[in-house]
Automatic annotation (TrEMBL):
Domain CobQ/CobB/MinD/ParA nucleotide binding per the UniProt entry, residue ranges: 6-185
Xref: Pfam families: CbiA
InterPro entries: CobQ/CobB/MinD/ParA_Nub-bd_dom, DNA_Partitioning_ATPase, McdA, P-loop_NTPase
Protein name: Plasmid segregation oscillating ATPase ParF
Species per Swiss-Prot/TrEMBL record: Caenispirillum bisanense
Length: 216
């Protein structure tokens, strides 16, 4: 069976795309002998740096996680190469790069758009979701870096519901454990497997696979 492709995109920078890509990849790889590949088309290369730290810690195979760093125009060719070899491919995209993001969204079985609890993040989702609509790609917003409580969180959630935006049931809190694990080239399921952060990322990973399976 061809690999499930999950693209993570958001026009606004600093939304947490790279952290989300790495954390999802590790959670999926530990979720039942799945083979997972990461494709980084962001010239900033943050995912590649995390993967290098992972290789230094776990060996050249990076604990079973493959990484390709390619320009956006080469994405289709790279996905064709990977689709028959792995179960899941996660694509990390750059902000403010409409052409590259469009190609990555077109190739995806499901698009994940991280939104932090701020109006700027919410407003920035609209162009990305519009691309997904035109490309007929199933998209989901994930509420990311949510503080435990606060009026702004409630306001953003209410606005998402009012706009009838597609949103995952899973939500990610503003957890220090995510960043701490990234520093070591690991995922939170490896460093704090019983933490709230690990529970949240596992739930999101399984939800995304279910969405992709339902629409394949």
């Amino acid at each position: 069976m061809a690999a499930t492709v999950i693209t993570i995109a958001q026009q606004k920078g600093g939304a947490g795309k790279t952290t989300l890509a790495a954390q999802l990849a590790v959670a999926l790889a530990h979720g039942g002998a799945r083979t997972v590949a990461l494709v980084d088309i962001d010239p900033q290369g943050s995912l590649g740096r995390w993967h290098k730290v992972r290789q230094e810690r776990l060996g050249d195979d990076a604990g079973g996680l493959r990484l390709s760093e390619v320009a956006g125009w080469r994405l289709s060719t790279e996905l064709d190469r990977l689709r028959g070899d792995v179960d899941v491919v996660i694509v990390d995209t750059p902000p403010h790069a409409e052409t590259d993001a469009k190609a990555a969204i077109r190739a995806a079985d499901v698009l994940l758009v991280p939104v932090q609890p701020s109006p700027m993040d919410l407003w920035a989702t609209q162009p990305t979701l519009e691309v997904a609509r035109k490309e007929k790609t199933h998209a989901r917003i994930v509420l990311n870096r949510l503080p435990p409580r606060g009026n702004l969180v409630d306001t953003i959630i209410a606005e998402v519901e009012k706009l009838e935006l597609p949103v995952t049931d899973s939500r990610l809190g503003n957890r220090v454990a995510f960043a701490a694990s990234m520093m070591d080239g690991l995922g939170v399921v490896e460093t704090a497997g019983r933490s709230s952060a690990a529970v949240e990322i596992r739930a999101l990973a399984e939800e995304l696979l279910a969405i992709a399976k339902a629409h394949k």
